[in-house]
Design a protein that fits this description.
single chain, alpha/beta, ten-stranded mixed sheet, five-stranded mixed sheet, about 25% helix, about 25% strand, globular
Length: about 375
């Protein structure tokens, strides 16, 4: 059987997720006579891209060889020189590209730079998989705003806590380990101040607690706190990871000064209906090169984000438990829809088993979506 070299390149890219932002996670392999002679993945910002790492490892064996890369090579000068120049100089004869790069500075120009020099280019192997791997980058690079992932855990009857507020733990170890791996990949974890007051979370990535490797870096912690109610002794101010508190001019200036003294980056934004303007927050995060945000609650914040069409993907963990009770909270607050026909639907839905729990993921169907996006959902079942 012919080896799947693009699959190997994708595996290399997955391994560096969380270390490359705001650049995409890319993998590359150089193949000569059916054998891999060079492997590479994108290094942290300022370091070489995947293609250069693989070509350096291959050395002279790259001449006349084939390069497999998960994203279109760059053709512009940024922090590093164009990868197309390195590919041409190395004497690569053929390049297989999983997916084009929508970055306006690339967007087909890398492919043209190679074909203009007589290099054969093949596009589309594992394209959907490669696109999903860097979906956060594609959103960020084309809009200037972060990709927003809404995550919550609930019981089978739709509760995130009991009527007394107890929420530890809704899901089991496998689901919690999954979340900690995600925290290690995203640029930031966001919650509303209500979650801080109720649970005092650390919001750090701790996959090592579940048998995984320790996180190579911690995500930024973002607290949406219109009136600066975050306690000065909250765990998110412990210095173990950067913390940004998004607030408004409604907050007491002395309180803001005290939060800054505790090491928080306090960002004063315009108010919308007495709360942080979430559109302004997303714009500012994009300016700060925060490309990928996971929102972990609470219900009011998630409700506001859904109402403003600011969610790009949903991860709903469902535990086979029943809590009941009129006073037990659900995961999404706000005014909500008045008619079932107005309910927000998801597309490209996947269902995955994590221990005893289920993970349902999908993408909100946007208002005015094209015919290909407004039809019924597609369900893919995975079992682990």
């Amino acid at each position: 059987m012919q080896p799947d070299f693009m699959a190997e390149a994708l595996d290399l890219a997955r391994r560096v997720l969380g270390t490359t932002s705001p650049n995409p996670a890319v993998g590359a392999v150089v193949v000569r006579d059916g054998r891999v002679v060079g492997r590479g993945a994108t290094q942290p910002p300022g370091g070489p891209h995947a293609e250069r790492v693989a070509l350096t490892e291959a050395g002279e064996l790259a001449r006349g060889a084939t390069l497999y890369v998960t994203l279109e090579p760059c053709s512009h000068h940024g922090r590093t020189p164009p990868c197309t120049e390195a590919i041409i100089a190395a004497g690569i004869a053929e390049v297989h590209i999983a997916t084009p790069d929508p970055n306006p500075l690339v967007n087909g120009q890398g492919i043209r730079a190679l074909t203009d020099r007589g290099i054969r280019v093949v596009i589309g192997e594992h394209q959907a998989e490669a696109g999903r791997l860097n979906e956060w980058f594609f959103k960020y690079i084309t809009t200037g705003r972060p990709f927003v992932l809404a995550k919550y855990a609930m019981t089978l009857d739709g509760k995130i806590a009991t009527r007394t507020g107890d929420s530890r733990w809704v899901t089991g170890p496998a689901a919690r380990a999954y979340v900690h791996r995600l925290r290690a990949q995203v640029d930031a974890v966001m919650v509303g101040v209500g979650t801080v007051l109720a649970d005092d979370p650390a919001l750090t990535a701790r996959p090592g607690e579940f048998g995984g490797l320790p996180a190579s870096r911690q995500p930024r912690r973002i607290i949406v706190d219109s009136s600066a109610r975050t306690p000065l002794n909250a765990r998110i101010l412990d210095g173990s990871a950067p913390t940004l508190i998004a607030t408004t001019a409604l907050a007491d200036p002395e309180r803001l000064a005290a939060l800054r003294a505790r090491g928080a980056d306090v960002l004063v934004l315009p108010a919308a209906d007495g709360r942080v303007d979430l559109e302004a927050l997303m714009e500012e995060l994009g300016r700060r090169q925060v490309a990928w945000v996971m929102v972990e609650g609470g219900g009011r914040l998630l409700g506001s984000l859904f109402e403003r069409d600011l969610i790009d993907k949903v991860l709903a963990f469902i535990a086979p438990k029943l809590i009941g009770g009129d006073g037990a909270r659900g995961p999404v607050g706000g005014a909500g829809r008045s008619r079932m026909a107005e309910a927000l639907r998801l597309k490209d839905v996947e269902i995955e088993r994590l221990g005893e729990d289920l993970l349902v993921s999908g993408y909100p169907v946007r208002e005015g979506a094209g015919p290909g996006e407004s039809g019924g959902s597609t369900y893919v079942h995975r079992h682990r």
